């Protein structure tokens, strides 16, 4: 689908022009002083760093505000199709620098502040990360917001304004401890606009009765209203004066319903109610892999969906008289199943509030909604108990019930008598509501996030749905924003690239391919190496300050940063390090390039084994870092409280990117793309987007190992394999596995028993032992390659050169053209014609190899 769409549209010149076309250094400097005065009543000398940060953010926001107003005026006039991206997570990280870059005033700002004796970087560090997400899914949503704004399309996010984001991780004695992430210390977020006038009532509980007056009406009564108050966070387009919004909903008490004295409610009870209701949006669930049937989570999901859809339809009706135009003017995207109640809520609004009949409402609903799946892990698939839904959302449950009845009837017509198939596809089965089934039935398009992932969906998890409606299914490989992950977070590399090929790549990331011929230019490769060294020094400084550990900046910086999960196999990495350590202990003179292994990531608080993995990494780090016998050839670090800002520091400084999930388990991965774009080389399995990265960069410029997805799935079908065979035949493995429990580590002998048992007693579900030998071999190849620095730098450059495909701009233009069918011209993400693209991208023909599972 990528091939035909990206060249189809003419270039799109945004016609929005306004401030800050030409902001001078002195204007900005003076405005900053004024901002500091008005916000804090302070002069420069008396203000703290935090106050200076707030003043700069406030000033930046005032510039954004003008553009926001202009954008909205223009949109009201043009009435373009709007897309709403519904997601329970948006992992924004910090916004100040990104906003300055996107406004095109970062350099002016650096100069203005330096005239006042202030370093911009020191202010940037004051901003709290907005950590409203667990990991990949939330960060992807944030990247798409950036792409949508940069490409000038009317696309908005809808999410929740959690009072506390993903927990703050502290490591004590090697263990993870969780603390509340109090990111809204001052109660407000510098970037948001609170919009109480646009609040929406969301109904919970109560009963439904029918009223027949010629036409059946459903009357919902005795419910409890929770007010959803929107806070809009502006999303700034890249140098196009355009601002979209991320609307975050916060739960508040309906003051009219519960004023003191009214309804016999005591003042104390009001406070109690207020607390109970407002706690709805207090916390982000800290789990990205396990479905848990917690009622608060279901409440959050409905709250997000109901507030967003009511507000979308309200705005639509203010501008349009004909409801039937809804799918032409609005696209609503469901980011994983968490907002899939949108199917039933849209039906409710269309039937109960807008008085449409079922068939018409259903047609509009399906034509408006689309759904992305982000995981095939069976334990992550959401299913809500029928009685919970029925009690909490009685009207919504009635609608789901009806959707299910009709859907099953339809299936019966296609597969008469095939009960097993119908049961496997039903929306309600075994007293549970299957959210993915609801999302598939109620959407016009369903997509996976990497080619192999989509294939696996079609062949396994969603096979029956695919057979039934093959045209609904498509793939859209994930992407990341080059503006944050290269231009902003790696300014030295960005400048080097711009010097070499011009700045076109910022808007047309496939232009990066023009770097490829420079892989033969030794002088350029040396410049590339010095940029990496600069970034490594910066990270080393942070490590020294934060963790008191000195690392060798000439060692290989090998990073494994992501949520801690068995399928992501941090333990396989640990096993390899244990193996290297063993080799060095046996032979301290062993000639290997020195390595610094960097880990970062959070474990879900209830995920016992993942938390033990953190303890294992830290225990190994203590042992290795304090062993003088190995002459500093190995260092291991676990960086505390991994978040977006840490990723921005680690990725530009890394030589190697660990993407070693058990094949078939990682839907896509997006960290892999960020590393690639920053010139790190991937060591990885043929899983998720790694496959497409290999296609893009060529097999010589990536270190691939391990079982293929097909092999893994075949083992699963057969019930696994016998790990003892490997344990007994490979002494390296036996040594390491025994070390987990034989007193090698100075911990209780049962400390890592669960890891030992998972490998041997419980069949090594994630194939660590099976993939170990080929992982070690790939690491050996990697070490050999690193010893030839010229070759290494050339490989690194080719990774950067071929990373343009993984820009979120490309992903987003696929969504916009093929799924949301936007009516605006969709801007190009790539300027070259297909044949030119193939020429500058020898590894990746635009009609590249398809991933097909047999
Ligand atoms: C029910 C609890 C729950 C919560 C979140 C289950 C599953 C999730 C997400 C699907 C987890 C997630 O973040 N998935 C990741 O999505 C990324 C963006 O598409 C992919 O790159 C990752 O491979 C995928 O794990």
Automatic annotation (TrEMBL):
Chain coiled-coil ranges: none
Entry keyword annotation includes Metal-binding: no
EC number: 2.4.1.1
Keywords for the protein's UniProt record, in alphabetical order: Carbohydrate metabolism, Glycosyltransferase, Pyridoxal phosphate, Transferase
Top-level division of the source organism's lineage: Bacteria
Cofactor(s) this protein cannot do without: pyridoxal 5'-phosphate
UniProt catalytic activity: [(1->4)-alpha-D-glucosyl](n) + phosphate = [(1->4)-alpha-D-glucosyl](n-1) + alpha-D-glucose 1-phosphate
Segment forming the signal sequence: none
One Pfam family cited in the UniProt record for this chain: Phosphorylase
Molecular function terms, GO-annotated: 1,4-alpha-oligoglucan phosphorylase activity
Purpose of the protein: Allosteric enzyme that catalyzes the rate-limiting step in glycogen catabolism, the phosphorolytic cleavage of glycogen to produce glucose-1-phosphate, and plays a central role in maintaining cellular and organismal glucose homeostasis. Phosphorylase is an important allosteric enzyme in carbohydrate metabolism. Enzymes from different sources differ in their regulatory mechanisms and in their natural substrates. However, all known phosphorylases share catalytic and structural properties.
Similarity section: Belongs to the glycogen phosphorylase family.
Protein name: Alpha-1,4 glucan phosphorylase
Species assigned in the record: Sporomusa acidovorans (strain ATCC 49682 / DSM 3132 / Mol)
């Amino acid at each position: 689908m990528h091939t035909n769409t990206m060249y189809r549209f003419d270039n799109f010149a945004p016609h929005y022009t306004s401030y800050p076309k030409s902001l001078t250094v002195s204007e900005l400097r003076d405005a900053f002083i004024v901002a500091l005065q008005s916000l804090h009543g302070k002069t420069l000398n008396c203000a703290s760093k935090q106050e200076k940060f707030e003043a700069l953010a406030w000033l930046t926001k005032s510039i954004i505000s003008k553009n926001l107003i202009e954008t909205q005026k223009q949109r009201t006039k043009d009435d373009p199709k709007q897309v709403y991206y519904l997601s329970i997570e948006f992992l924004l990280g910090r916004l100040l620098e990104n906003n300055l870059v996107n406004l095109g005033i970062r350099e002016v700002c650096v100069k203005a502040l330096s005239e006042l004796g202030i370093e911009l970087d020191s202010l940037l560090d004051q901003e709290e990360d907005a950590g409203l997400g667990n990991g990949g899914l939330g960060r992807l949503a944030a990247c798409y917001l950036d792409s949508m704004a940069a490409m000038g399309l009317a696309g908005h996010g809808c999410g929740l304004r959690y009072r506390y984001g993903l927990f703050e991780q502290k490591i004590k004695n090697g263990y993870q401890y969780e603390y509340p992430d109090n990111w809204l210390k001052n109660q407000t977020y510098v970037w948001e606009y609170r919009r109480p006038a646009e609040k929406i009532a969301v109904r919970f509980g109560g009963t439904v009765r029918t009223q027949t007056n010629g036409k059946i009406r459903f009357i919902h009564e005795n419910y409890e209203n929770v007010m959803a108050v929107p806070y809009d966070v502006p999303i700034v387009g890249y140098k196009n004066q355009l601002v979209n919004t991320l609307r975050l909903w916060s739960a508040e008490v309906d003051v009219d319903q519960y004023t003191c004295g009214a309804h016999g409610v005591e003042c104390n009870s009001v406070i109690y109610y207020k607390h109970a209701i407002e706690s709805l949006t207090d916390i982000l669930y800290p789990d990205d892999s396990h479905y848990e049937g917690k009622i608060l989570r279901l409440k959050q999901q409905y709250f997000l969906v109901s507030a967003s859809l009511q507000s979308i339809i309200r705005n639509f009706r203010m501008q349009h008289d004909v409801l039937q135009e809804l799918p032409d003017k609005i696209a609503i995207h469901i980011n994983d199943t968490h907002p899939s109640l949108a199917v039933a809520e849209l039906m409710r609004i269309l039937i109960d509030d807008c008085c449409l009949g079922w068939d018409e409402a259903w047609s509009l609903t399906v034509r408006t909604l689309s759904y992305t799946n982000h995981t095939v892990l069976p334990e992550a698939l959401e299913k809500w108990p029928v009685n919970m839904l029925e009690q909490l959302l009685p009207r919504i449950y009635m609608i789901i019930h009806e959707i299910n009845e009709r859907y099953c009837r339809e299936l019966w017509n296609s597969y008469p008598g095939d009960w097993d198939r119908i049961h496997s596809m039903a929306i309600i089965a075994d007293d549970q509501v299957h959210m993915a089934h609801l999302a598939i039935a109620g959407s016009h398009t369903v997509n996976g996030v990497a080619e192999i992932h989509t294939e696996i969906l079609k062949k396994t998890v969603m096979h029956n749905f695919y057979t039934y409606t093959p045209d609904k299914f498509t793939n859209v490989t994930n992407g990341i924003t080059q503006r944050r992950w290269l231009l902003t977070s790696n300014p030295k590399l960005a400048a080097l690239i711009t010097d070499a090929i011009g700045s076109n790549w910022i808007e047309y990331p496939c232009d990066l391919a023009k770097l490829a011929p420079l892989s033969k230019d030794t002088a350029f490769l040396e410049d590339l190496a010095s940029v990496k060294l600069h970034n490594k020094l910066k990270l080393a400084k942070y490590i020294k300050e934060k963790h008191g550990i000195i690392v060798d900046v000439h060692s290989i910086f090998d990073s494994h940063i992501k949520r801690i999960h068995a399928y992501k196999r941090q333990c396989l990495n640990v096993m390899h390090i244990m193996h290297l350590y063993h080799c060095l202990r046996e032979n301290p003179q062993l000639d290997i390039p020195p390595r610094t292994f960097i880990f970062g990531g959070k474990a879900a608080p209830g995920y016992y084994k993942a938390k033990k993995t953190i303890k294992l990494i830290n225990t190994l780090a203590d042992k290795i870092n304090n062993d003088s016998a190995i002459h500093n050839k190995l260092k291991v670090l676990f960086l505390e409280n991994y978040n977006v800002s840490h990723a921005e520091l680690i990725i530009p400084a890394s030589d190697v990117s660990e993407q070693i999930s058990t094949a078939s388990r990682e839907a896509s991965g997006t960290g892999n793309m960020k590393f690639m774009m920053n010139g790190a080389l991937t060591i990885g399995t043929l899983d998720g987007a790694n496959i497409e990265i290999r296609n893009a960069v060529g097999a010589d410029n990536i270190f691939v190992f391990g079982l293929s997805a097909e092999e893994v799935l075949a083992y699963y079908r057969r019930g696994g394999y016998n790990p003892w065979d490997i344990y007994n035949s490979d002494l390296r493995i036996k040594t390491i596995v025994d070390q987990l429990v034989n007193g090698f580590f100075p911990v209780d002998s049962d400390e890592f028993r669960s890891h030992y048992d998972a490998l041997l007693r419980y069949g090594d579900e994630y194939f660590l032992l099976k993939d170990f030998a080929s992982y070690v071999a790939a690491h050996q190849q990697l070490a050999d390659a690193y010893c030839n620095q010229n070759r290494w730098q050339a490989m690194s450059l080719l990774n950067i050169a071929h990373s343009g495909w993984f820009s979120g701009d490309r992903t987003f233009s696929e969504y916009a053209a093929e799924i949301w069918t936007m009516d605006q011209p969709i801007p190009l993400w790539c300027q070259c014609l297909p044949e030119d693209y193939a020429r500058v991208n020898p590894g990746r023909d635009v009609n590249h190899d398809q991933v097909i599972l047999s």
